[in-house]
Design a protein that fits this description.
The radius of gyration is 20 Å and the shape is globular. The protein has 2 domains: 77 residues, no CATH class; 205 residues, no CATH class. The longest helix has 36 residues. Helix 4 runs antiparallel to helix 5 and helix 7 packs antiparallel against helix 8. It contains 11 helices and no strands. By secondary structure, it is mainly α.
């Protein structure tokens, strides 16, 4: 007799991603796909985090491929509700992509060419451009869905913030594709200034979200996204002015933690955005 086993914690997240499939396909195959994924993840978890990451990588690639094929077969029809629902997944996926970027902060040989013993860290860094692009696209749907509850000033702030991260994403991806050197000083300063402006916009949105309970849950996640990186940069500036040289491991650890917090925050925001839309659909089946 097969014993019941407790599913891996990330199975619930995969179950949410299944909503990306067309409704007919999801109803026919969704539960079976979740069960297969849960079984694979249960077996992989016995072999450590690397095996779990491999299962997730294969599952995400298959999900993207199948979603594109199924929508292409049935003809893509993107309504406002479909776009905002898709946007919630883009935010979650963007948050997920920030996690390998945080891992990439532990690279020790920043000036060497791509490849070599630190290639896993360098691969992690390549997720930054796609992560920012996914978040920028997801925020478009977020503004479309919640715009009526935001003041004109907050919406303008969010649009500017989103435009900046979208521009950074495109330039970052282009730089990676053209294999531009990692040591271009102007690119580093552009990234820092752009991120500070973008995250300031997110902090302002977070304060507004907490005051008016914009989402039904996880409104504080906006501050989880917006605060850690500016705090890290501010502390780093103070340390430099005091002529203190922190250890490389400590500096990398704080940088990685701030980016991981950003990723976790976007996952929570995307999930809350998704649940709000599902709740509306249940209350108003005609939508």
């Amino acid at each position: 007799m097969k014993l019941d086993v407790k599913p891996h914690p990330s199975v619930a997240f995969y179950k949410t991603l299944v909503y990306l499939y067309p409704k007919a396909y999801r109803q026919e195959y969704g539960s079976h796909m979740v069960q297969v994924f849960a079984d694979l993840l249960h077996d992989a978890s016995r072999n450590g985090a690397r095996s779990v990451m491999q299962v997730w990588a294969i599952a995400l690639l298959d999900l993207v491929k199948t979603v594109i094929e199924e929508y292409a077969r049935g003809g893509i029809r993107m309504t406002k509700s479909s776009f905002t629902l898709l946007s919630s997944f883009l935010l979650m996926l963007g948050g997920l992509f920030w996690l390998p970027v945080s891992y990439g902060q532990f690279e020790q040989y920043w000036e060497d060419p791509f490849g070599g013993p630190d290639i896993l860290f360098e691969i992690g860094q390549k997720f930054m451009g796609p992560a920012m692009l996914l978040v920028a696209l997801g925020l478009l749907g977020f503004v479309l869905h919640y715009g009526s509850r935001l003041s004109s000033l907050i919406k303008a702030n969010l649009i500017i913030s989103n435009s900046i991260i979208g521009t950074m994403a495109v330039l970052g991806i282009a730089g990676d594709l053209m294999l531009l050197p990692k040591t271009w000083e102007w690119a580093w300063y552009f990234f820092i200034v752009g991120m500070i402006i973008h995250l300031t916009g997110i902090i302002i949105l977070g304060i507004c979200a907490l005051r008016c309970q914009l989402l039904t849950r996880f409104n504080v996640a906006f501050l989880l996204i917006g605060l850690p990186f500016p705090i890290y940069m501010f502390v780093g500036l103070i340390v430099q002015l005091m002529h203190i040289t922190p250890s490389s491991a400590l500096n990398d650890g704080f940088s990685a933690a701030s980016l991981a917090a950003m990723g976790l925050g976007w996952i929570l925001i995307g999930y809350a955005f998704f649940k709000d839309q599902i709740m509306i659909k249940k209350l108003q089946p005609s939508l």
